[in-house]
Amino acid sequence: MSTNLLSTSIAIGFGGVVQEYLWNWENQQLRVVYETLGKGSPLLLLPAFSSVSTRLEMGELAKLLAPHFQVVAIDWPGFGQSSRPSLNYRPEIYQHFLEDFVKAVFNTPITVVAAGHATSYVLQLAVKSAAFSKIVLLAPTWRGPLPTMGASQQIAGIVRELVRSPILGQALYKLNTAPSLLSFMYRRHVFTDAAKITPSFIEKKWQTTQQPGARFASAAFVTGNLDAIHAQSDFLELVQSLTVPLMVVIGESSPPKSREEMNALVALPGVRSVVIPGSLGLHEEYPAVVLEAIQDFLFSSEN
After folding, report:
1. Which of 68, 91, 208, 295 has its CA 20 to 30 A from that of 153?
2. Distance, CA of 122 to CA of 265 (rounded, Å)
3. What residues pair up with 1 in beta bridges, in sequence order?
């Protein structure tokens, strides 16, 4: 496993140094792209899983944090500019990847700021090892969209295999990532200010979904195959097992089912929390508000 600089002509980022981490999974080498900005104590930014997942959704927050930290933001395997092979994307891949990446890139426990579905992977690694010194969770979730909507594992599995199929799958994926549907998704549960959902914004998101192999990891997320845990009790048990400080940021307009899960999390003793404007995409929509909400937690030597 190694890291290499990427040519700026092919690497589109938020102004940092773009590198690739070459990671082996089941005898296959995956190219994982990450970006580093700023100097100081290391801070890892993990974007949410979604059909449009990319480190760029963390870009503005990264720039705000860079004067105080050495910020590292990743594109998860199967998303963004990272390799998107037709793997059976499942929790084991991301559990092993996150552990290996943190070990390879950092030599001390780090602060991690994780959005959405990255939550479970961070919590599991934090319980397993001393990888993190502080954890911030932004609009944390643990259950994929179809299971949240009530779909059974059997139905979700059928949908996943349909999307993975060569011809029908490509057609289904194209329909479900059309700009009009992406705009609807953002208006429904990602952003709260419709004025920010501009045609150029949606165009960039759409371009992300159209990369070769993009449908495989996306289908896994949507159908719940990236759910690292499957019950609220397991989610809360992870948090109760933590030995490092934890802060949770909740969007006041979060979808009802997701908000219920977040409320159960922040009701646990010792969990700091704050409610700010926004929904599931609050880190991208309101980065300055997020920084203001978490800066005391981040900069304090005692939590």
Report:
1. 208
2. 15
3. none
pLDDT for 91-125, tens place per residue?
Answer: 999 999 999 999 999 999 999 999 999 999 999 99
Assess contact for 93 and 25: CB atoms under 8 A.
Answer: yes
Q: Are 70 and 38 in contact (CB under 8 A)?
A: yes
Least Cα distance to 116 among 53, 170, 73 occurs for 53
What is the 3 state secondary structure string of 87-144?
A: CCCCHHHHHHHHHHHHHHHCCCCEEEEEECCHHHHHHHHHHHCCCEEEEEEECCCCCC
Task: Please give the Cα distance from 242 to 236 (Å, whole number).
Answer: 10
pLDDT digits (tens, 9 = 90+) for 284-300: 999 999 999 999 999 98
Look at the pTM and tell me if it is higher than 0.90: yes
Neighbouring residues of 181: CB distance < 8 A, sequence distance ≥ 6: 175
> Residue 10 pLDDT more than 50?
no
At position 244, the amino acid (one-letter code) is V
